[in-house]
Amino acid sequence: MDLSSLDSEIRIPFPNNEIIRSIKSNHNNQILSVKQQPINEDTYAIQVNDKCLQVYTGDYNLDKCFEINNVFHPQYFEAKRIMNNGDAKSIMNSSQLNDTGYPYTIFKHKSTKQCLSLDDTGLYLDKCNSNTLKQKWSVSPNENLCVDK
Question: Could you tell me the pTM of the whole model?
């Protein structure tokens, strides 16, 4: 069977009954660990060096990872699957759309409503923009294990 003949519009959603444990930037292939939170199955904390990214308006830091049943905790991001232009418009509030490859996942901060972004200098939050690879993530149920050499 020639797989290239399959309709490119058919997509298998991920994760399918699995927890996301790592994410890979579509910008530079950097892999980060994430930790599902008790709020719901779409809420995650972003792990960096055994701590979690904590965001207050314009202020970022790393702190002990918490598991608190509070929707607006500063460590909580919502994983959102973007399957098409309609999702990009409604979820990312994007008005001008360039088809830069669907599907992908974004991580939207629960309180600031900004998207997790990664460039070559590091992590940051920015207004959600479906036209940048810096906010698009591939997700995996595999753990990102760091090994000392």
Answer: 0.84
